[in-house]
Amino acid sequence: MSISLQTVTIRFSEMKDAAHLMELDDLVWDRNTAPEPLHWTSRDNYLLHCPPGSQLVAVNGDDVCGYVGFCAPTGLESNSHVYELNIAIHPSYQRSGIGRRLIQAVQDMARLEGKTKLRLRVLSCNPGAIAFYKACGFQEEGRLVQEFFVDGRYVDDILMSYFI
């Protein structure tokens, strides 16, 4: 799908986005992108884990194109300078620049909030995502070797970070 990035708006997630974001998770998180497919059991369960405002959402008109979720990795004050990220782009909007805009938006937001590190996890069987994160300035910080057994093979869990 060809779109103009000028028509895409990035904003904080809202209650009205829940159904679209649940559908997006169902589309994106499969055996190549997550240790197990992600299926929310209910809207309430989704909102418990992803409350409004915990994601930056890219929208094109009424379409939710993608999101980047951010949260503190722990409740510890000594870890409060870090955001853990997760990002999903609707398959129809992948490779259109939306992912890069979302990463830039969360980097800008984190900088304004005084965060100094962004981190994420990606499976070694997802070379496209790894290349994307590297192109956005993330670097491999660690690797949990053979952390998951997915579809008959062991898969590494790669820890990546971006320092602001």
TrEMBL record:
Top-rank taxon, per record: Bacteria
Residue stretches making up the N-acetyltransferase domain: 8-164
UniProt-listed InterPro entries: Acyl_CoA_acyltransferase, Bact_Acetyltransf, GNAT_dom
Transmembrane annotation, as ranges: none
GO function term, MF aspect, one: acyltransferase activity, transferring groups other than amino-acyl groups
Pfam families, alphabetized: Acetyltransf_1
Transferase in keyword set: yes
Coiled coil: none
Keywords: Acyltransferase, Transferase
Protein name per its UniProtKB record: Protein N-acetyltransferase, RimJ/RimL family
Originating organism: Paenibacillus uliginis N3/975
